[in-house]
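Narrative summary of target 7.
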Amino acid sequence: MKKKPSFPIWKAPDDEKRMPTPLEWDGLIAAREAWASAQIVGWEKRGLQLEDKDFRSWISEVPSGAENAHLGLRLAALYEYAREGEKLRGLLLLLNPDRKRAAWEEYGRESAEHGGGSYLSGFAKARQMTYQGLTEELARNGLYGLVDALAFLAEPLAANLSFAEVWREKQKLVWRALKHGDLLYQLRTRHGITSHWKLGRGAPVELAWQEERKEATAFNTPRQINNGKEIITLRVDWANFRDEHLKDRFGEIIKYLRQTKEGGVSVPPEPKVQKQGRKSTSLTGDLSKLRAMRFLHHYPNVAQAVLEARRFGNKFVSDEHLYRDAKAGRTEFKKCFPFEAEPYHSRTAGRSCRV
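Modeled conformation, tokenized:
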């Protein structure tokens, strides 16, 4: 059995008290990524088990114990979709708040924050967690605070445990993720957004990243709307106006920008408000799409995949239904994790579920 690599601990080869050189930084970071890779259990090793296709055990349990009836379901659905990729699982291992950082990582973080030293590039690399080209910054651009919430579940995700196993054996980790402030804020303030997966792409309004400033709309610049989103430069007078006055003014600006068309640029119409009672149904539907992907990938005979789907509750399912749901499941995966390649269970028998 091949021995898993240990986490890289820095010690100067010449026994001098010094920090790594730039080349030595690169070696440490590569060793850190190799350590994370060794922890990840692939689907080839695990195989498709009962709880990977039957979600009924925890769908009925998770909401009953949560403070908000749908928080647990949303986190569970996102967790199951995350198992289909690898990059995020590796990155989350490095971001895991329970992982003890090596001295060279902590030194790199502190030194970079204080802006000193000839090894600044090495410090920055040590501070910025990276896995197979996926950086912490890129993951946060797609998932925002949900990265921190999922980081609590990094170890079971790396081990490719089903959410049913996590809920049964590591429930404390689930509660820690649910209690994470950023996650709760995003989950509770998403009303009016058309798809529950939008919570994975951030709250309705977020502070933009520094590198996004060049795309910002200002008073004297043309508007730039990409994928229905717009970055706007605002000047806020905090000193002379109360919050209620600022809210009123924000409302006026939003109304103006929503209705104004400049240079052929139009803002998407305001989405319809979803009924509260349909959230659980929507989440269950997305899990059904994921299950269809796994059925079609696992069973070489489509008829067998249909029989398995009927066995787990889809009484009127047909091969057309399975292919349609599998295609929709892959779309949901790409919405949540645009930085990942294809989901593992994207190959199907006879036809493709790719979009």
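The radius of gyration is 23 Å.
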